[in-house]
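In this section we walk through a basic example: taking a raw amino acid sequence and producing a predicted 3D structure, encoded as discrete structure tokens. The instruction is simple. Fold the sequence below.
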Amino acid sequence: MSDCMPSPLAARNTLASALLLAALAGCSPDNRPPLGTVTGTVTLDGRPLAAAAVHFTPDGPGRTSLGSTDSAGGYRLRYLRDIEGANLGRHTVRIMTATEENGGREILPPRYHAATVLEAVVQPGTNRIDFSLQSR
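The resulting token sequence is shown next.
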């Protein structure tokens, strides 16, 4: 092998480094889609639903935004760990209560988490989207 040509291992490592840098560059704020801030309250039979997971999945391309309800049933969606919001547009919404702490027991009917009937539209800016769930 000549001194001017990289070894196959060096070429592979260079390619792997380039791919990693390209992937990290894809996570930059410049490549993030437009987001809307989403907050709201989830109630079950008129009472705040605490410790529920709230998932907004865009109907088109994009990542799911996640939130969890506090003791008052309030939630705030996160697009990424340090970035609040959700993709703009129509979303399928799933709300669930099954966790390791409660032994995986789901208290909500399947229409809210499995074959969900919940939808929401996220607009630019601030969105308040409340969910009033019924146990029956």
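Looking at the output, two observations stand out. The first strand starts at residue 35 and ends at 44. The two ends are 74 Å apart (CA to CA). In the next section we compare this with other chains.
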